[in-house]
Amino acid sequence: MNLRIPTLVSLPLIAACLTEGAPPDVDLDDLARKRCRGGFDCNDGNACTTDACVGGACVFTAVTAPTACDDANPCTWDDACQGAACVGTATLPLLSGDVTPDLEGWTGYLETTATTSDGQVVTVDTAATPSTQSVSSWGQPLAATWFATHDLEWRARVVTATSNPYDGSAVVFPAFSGWYGVGVEREQMVMLETGAVTWGDQSQSYPLATTAWHTYRLAFPATGGLALYVDGALALQRATFTAGAAIGFGDHTNDAGFDGTFQLDAVRLVPGASCPVGPPPPPL
Predict the structure, then answer these.
(1) CA distances to 58, 212, 231, 252 from 218, in Å
(2) Residues 72, 107: one domain?
(3) Is the distance from CB of 53 to CB of 41 less than 8 angstroms?
(4) What pTM was computed for the model?
(5) Which residues pair with 163 in a beta bridge?
(6) What is the mean pLDDT of residues 50-73?
(7) Taking burial as the number of CB atoms within 10 A of a residue's CB, which of 34, 61, 99, 134 is the most buried?
(8) Would you say residue 151 lies in a domain?
(9) Is 136 within 8 Å of 264 (Cβ atoms)?
(10) d(C-alpha 156, C-alpha 159), whole Å
């Protein structure tokens, strides 16, 4: 699948993926042995080679100019030729932490100055800049169909956190439509509290020392719903998930006096269980 994503800054990890090969009825060894009359006799079906007939023999040369191709793998983006192979990107970075979110294509809402970067991680700090709204939220367009093949992963730690049902000072939205968010989006958001991680509606809670760094991974089972893993262990599950056109994160406590500080980095899409593109991504 050759899908371009111009709004995202990406330094992708290259994963093992499928190579665009010749049509099933073409035997490349047999083709190379036969005498040819011209390039039309030497089509190997590979977009990453130039085909020529030289002295009656087929010669296949890897392309040198940047060339887009299709690796026939729905789990990859930005397919391009690397030598004679078509290689796609299976892991897609969305937020590195190295710069503020706006420089990586995220849209900020309300107190955007409460979000900074030290060159390594992003810090959302409304505790230092309280207001009536107490909100510093960020959204990034993300097609819901991508969750059929990929999971959403990030690293985070809480410094201070306050929350009440549907409001948290350290949250990640798997579906996000704006700074306030509709009811179902707030119900299914991941909320980091002091000493636990919960769904936004607080229907489930998982005890956790959230002030330490952890790797969180939202999986989207084929049977529906959501599953949250923390450092590889299943933490929360819910039977339903309402997808949206974007994801989000931030301090989402729009009630006065509910402020907090948390740090975030390495937000990315990683291959899910239904996406066999080689070994799992390396740990963060």
Answers:
(1) 49, 19, 11, 19
(2) no
(3) yes
(4) 0.77
(5) 168
(6) 90
(7) 134
(8) yes
(9) no
(10) 10
Name the domain boundary from 76, 92, 108.
Answer: 92
Model confidence band, residue 125 (pLDDT cutoffs 50, 70, 90)? very high
Q: Is residue 161 part of a domain?
A: yes
Confidence label for 89 from pLDDT (cuts 50, 70 and 90): confident
Q: How many of the other CB atoms lie within 10 Å of CB of 46?
A: 22
Count of residues making up the chain: 284
Q: Cβ contacts of residue 228 below 8 Å, gap of 6+?
A: 190, 197, 206, 216, 217, 218, 219, 234, 235, 236, 237
- 270: β partners: 151
Query: Which run of H or of E encompasses 235?
Result: strand 233-238
Both 156 and 260 in one domain: the answer is: yes
Q: What residues have CB less than 8 Å from 70, skipping those under 6 apart?
A: 1, 2, 20, 47, 79, 86
Tell me whether residue 277 is in a domain: no
Q: Which domain holds residue 236?
A: 94-271
The residue type at 14? I
Structure tokens at 204: 């489930």
**Interval 83-87 mean pLDDT:** 91
136 shares a domain with 161: yes
Task: For residues 210 and 157, give the distance between their C-alpha atoms in angstroms, rounded to a whole number.
Answer: 6
Structural domain includes residue 280: no
Nearest to 17 by CA among 108, 79, 101, 63: 79
Say which amino acid occupies 52. Answer: A
Average pLDDT over residues 230-237: 96
